[in-house]
Amino acid sequence: MDPRLADDLHALPDLLDAASKLAAAALAGLDGRAAAVPPVAVEPAPLPLEGAGARGALDEFTRRWEPGFAASAGPRYLGFVTGGATPAALAGDWLTAAYDQNPASGMDSSAQDLERETVGWLAGLFGLGPEFSGAFVTGATMSTVTGLAIAREWLGERAGVTVSTEGAAALGPVTVLSGSPHSSVLKALSFLGMGRSSLRKVPVLPGREAVDVAKLAEALETLDGPAVVVANAGTVNTVDFDDLRAIAELKQRYDFWLHVDAAFGGFAALAPEHAALTAGLDRADSVVVDLHKWLNVPYDSAVQFTRRRDLQLRVFGNNAAYLGEIGETPDFLHLTPENSRRLRALPAWFSLVAYGRAGHREIVERCVALARDLGARIDGSPRWHLLAPVRLNVVCFTPAGEVTQNRIDTLVRAIADDGTTFLTPTVYDGRPALRAAFSNWRTTVADVERVFAVLEGLG
């Protein structure tokens, strides 16, 4: 054994204590750390010939890289849709690394059963019945890939083609319909061989991002065969929701696979005031939910749900003698693109056990209230213009007066340079804009006040 490895093994308790102290200091200092750190070039270092040992690596990380890390786990990081990590989730994530389980197979540990329990709890949170099965994946993009891969197999089933055997070319052209699809849908279609051009945009309701269900019906009426419909339970700009029940009702007349992107909007199901927005989610064929957003578990973590595990197994099944037989309850390596995989379920399990439905409901409701607070402040300011109602946890707005993309880009840089908060740009209804997404468990009214003060100063 390399002497540095032997020394680190002997000193492991002290090493973990040092790493714990560094992590604790970083978390305790979130309030003073810049929400975003504009990148500064770091001179690349050569790979060491003789290692420095774990303490040496910790020291070099602290010196060279740690100062450039953003406070993305903090309460005023409002870019993209980014949660933090609850204390329980963080503890679960550390134990995930320590136990280093590979829940691909059920032959050697109980890790798969823990994942199945966690998936079942999550399905219950989102109102999905026992007909749904699911698995953990890296994020909403891979959840979308998984769901649409199952949809592709379903299209083949309708056409008498086994796509997983014969390939996407055997299926021929497909049609995917959606009103305001997330960009990851296009990425998934490209990845799966269905092609970006298979996506047809359907008109949305006036002043909305929600699909016009009547227009969707008209589009379905023109088709000669089955299709895939991608519906939204929370759009990225304004958290708008398609009428999932009305879309599902169209299945009585038209043949289509219903895939629902509920990456963060699905969490509306936890709050009684907003749960009606997700009505009909249980009638989907595949569902996307991202957990490193509103469940506040560390990156990376998401789940995919489907009611057609048989087709999922056909797509992702990985037969090999050393993997054992595929039983009545398939191992996870037969259900997602990954074979080896991290036990992403453990941080989610910890957070769900620690805070329960009520604790996560409180996070959702508080984030919605804070988004509405910021939206009301922006709406009352002459310096800003609110572009859409604050439907859930995202505030979409733009400066007053003439707005160009250059002006928005300049504002994004100025906000990042200030360091108090971080926002990301977007384009809504053809207008360059900013968006503030609230999903961090730490955020309070005091943070909204600080964010708005910065905006007023820059506006």
UniProtKB/TrEMBL annotation:
Keywords: Antibiotic biosynthesis, Decarboxylase, Lyase, Pyridoxal phosphate. This is Pyridoxal phosphate-dependent decarboxylase family protein. It comes from the Bacteria. SUPFAM superfamilies: PLP-dependent transferases. It comes from Amycolatopsis plumensis. Belongs to the group II decarboxylase family. Its cofactor is pyridoxal 5'-phosphate. InterPro entries: Aromatic_deC, PyrdxlP-dep_de-COase, PyrdxlP-dep_Trfase, PyrdxlP-dep_Trfase_major, PyrdxlP-dep_Trfase_small. Pfam families: Pyridoxal_deC (PF00282). The keyword Lyase applies.
